[in-house]
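Deliverable D4.2, example record:
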Amino acid sequence: MRVLVAGGGIGGLVTAIALRHHGIEVIVLEQAEALGEVGAGIQIGSNAAIVLRELGLETAMQAVGVKPESYDYRDLRTGRLLYQAPLGDEAARRYGAPMYNVHRSDLIQLLFDAVPAESKRLGACCVALSQTDDAVEVRLQTGETLKGDVLVGCDGIHSIVRQYLRGQEEKHFSNILMWRSLIPAQRLEGLELPERGNYWFGPGRTLITYWVRPQNLYSILASVPADEVRRESWTESGDIAEMLRSFEDAEPRARAMLEQCRTAFITGMYYRDPIDSWSSGRVTLLGDAAHPMVPFLAAGAGQSIEDAWTLSRVLSRRQDDVPGALLEYERRRLPRTTRIQAGARAAVKLVHETDTARLRNRNARWKGMARIDPLAETSWGLAWDYDVVKAVEGAPGEVVNVTGLREGKRLKRPESQRAFELWKYAFRPEDVARGHDGLREAYDRFLTTNFPLPDGFEAIEDELGDVRAFRVSAKEAHSDGVVLHFHGGGYLIGSAEGSLEYASRLATAADGVCYTIDYRLAPEHPYPAAIDDAVVAYRALLGKGVPAGSILLSGESAGGGLAVALALALRMAGDPLPAGILAVAPFADLTLSGESVRAFNGDDPAANRDLLTFMGASYFQGHEPTDPLVSPLFGDLTGLPPLFVTATQGEVLLSDAIRLAQRAEKAGVDVTLRLVEDSVHVYTIFPFLPETESTMGEVADWARRNLQRGAAHSQAAE
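Output generated by the structure prediction step:
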């Protein structure tokens, strides 16, 4: 087998080294006439370092790079520490290898030196290509043609190979420009810039800075809004005064650092959307040619390196079936790179916020994340916590997709698989890339599209105190039973409108009405906003003359935790308690200490550890997450009304449900615990599931008993 590699950047060179490592002949075609000291700093995460180690290159990396001890996030204007991600030896223990910062040219040179002369050509610009069933041919600008068994396009965001496969495509500008500069160590004496990732974040702008040669050369990436740089063209030379104007209010250390820049070059931040196919016949794409991403997850080079190892290993196993090998390579890589592309865009949005309130909420979320994720696995683990050398020896379906789900996960029954796939595709890459704004819109789209209010029911917009609500009931309902329902969504997403269909079935189960409320959402409204709204809504029902004994509390996921927290708050305040609480897959422990959060991470299409960390920290922010009104699992459950808890075996919040039921039972609460098999998170929102029908039948019987008991208690109290 002979492989042609178009492009001699990081991805192309590692591909050549990896192919040779697996005994495959290769030739790299690089259009540049010579290597030069171009670019600035680049970050090589643990996931990529594992591959370089396997290829015998880690020692060379250690000789030229820096192993940062942490990432330190600071406020650009004040210098206040916002967040710290431990790295160094800690990262090596967690992820299997350290993380390195290195000058791009040093990395290119060590990779170039590892490719023998006969396997590389400079000044080889590919201008055309063609393929047959048996071979692929590349024509160079000189007119020379080369033939091979495979062509790998490693030629970047402007890839000629990609254009051959897909035609002309639009690339997207993020409206952010990036200044890059390198500063010799002697000009930074006295500024206290340790061997860490020294990062500053301000409104609409960032400073990403670190050493790339140990105490010798310092790299700066300064991103600014595009409208702050006024010129007819963006070239490799930049006006330093123009850059400094964008950071005139930076804290003294950051400002002094920037003032030591003597030259800088400026580039735009571009990306392309994820695509559903990279390969055709004997031609495939790799790295930025396949999945160009914004540079804010320290992952672009790492994904190219992962691609290179995967491609070379798969080709080595399937040399007699090149098209099949390329499709397997794509199947193993596309879900993961799509996830990283979306995550990188979400990170760009997060660190370039301009609104004062959103900045405050973001910083508070980081504070919350530090409480429950002190090792910053949620921030960086999605990129770095991956050993592609091991992964490529396993099943392709083990790869995790954009929503944190293993691609090969399936359920047994067709109806449960239908619910599984509805969850699986609820959030698209673009939704994830837009952060919580995109997740919020997508979740409402998922619920309102798939679960409209059924015929025979009406939903009347109402208010409970100052809390917006919908009163849902059958048009001919006459019973006095009332359900006060709290939707799920991790306190971050979800709405009353999205729960109307489920509310109609709750109303039926109670033989009455269901009020589903729009409690305020994080991060705009952190704790105690949701619990305050819940208390107000409950007391408003009492104010309407509804006896406490005629009220059932209900909630799914975060709403289930909120329903239990509400009962705790009412008991502490001396309010009359409701007749019962229905908690479906309750998010009751925002410290994420339950075994199932890790054990089933990647198996649950609706939730994963990263998402729950992001959601929980958005809610409690600077507050203590073990507060029972945040995480009712830690509360004294004595004296609570009857509790009906249900969840699915295999979902990430299973242990929250089981531990809540066990602690409530130990506290003397009348507990019903129903666990179902082969189903999904909050299965009761899927009306077509048989387990939903049977559970709702049990809920109806449970509701009838407890409403009758509650009515008797209310009458006795009167």
